[in-house]
Amino acid sequence: MSQYFIAFFDINNILLVVWSYPLSYIELIGTVFGLIAVWLATRQKISSWLVGLINVSCFFWLFYQVQLYSGMFLQAFFFATNIYGWFVWRKQLAGNEAPTILSSTKRWSLLIITALLTVTVGLIVQKLPILYPLIFPKPASQPYYDAFIAIASVSGQIMLTRRISDNWFVWLVVNAISVLVFFRQGLYLLTIEYILFLLLSIKGIIDWRKTVLIRKTI
Length: 218
Fold this sequence. Notes:
Elements: H1 2-8, E1 14-18, E2 21-24, H2 25-42, H3 47-65, H4 69-94, H5 104-131, H6 143-161, H7 167-184, H8 188-211
Helix pairs in contact: 2-3, 2-8, 3-4, 4-6, 5-6, 6-7, 7-8
């Protein structure tokens, strides 16, 4: 059973070929559920977190297979925060709480910390195939871009779980860079997905700002 499961979600298990692009089952399933989850999040629907569990599970295995190791570890973080986010949103929505916004000081602190961690994680990811060659047999692809996406996504995800409206500005940048990374990696369906994520992040900025009834900073 486990061998069949692994084989089904192998990136080389192709569902169909679209304009010469081999589309795997795992990429299609992860993409579809990812789009649904983000769309639900822009509408502040709590079901977004449950749908997202399927998305991140697929992408964890997908990123491992294409050597985007920072992205792979990021999906494990997303899995945990999807569960956490469901509980937080359930409480906040039940109390009819409006989203909040960050202070200017916290925004600058977030920018500096993200830059420092990107360099650090990029260096670590580069060394994974040397330190653990059996687990990571191939060198990391685009380690610093991959690291930035991972670090910034952690910030965006934490803010999203706490319903801080600034999260959509973070996702705007993350999605723009992800488009470049996935296109270079030859993951064209993911490239299209992240273009749609980019548009959804703009929608999130607009829609969430409308719901900040009391614009308090934290």
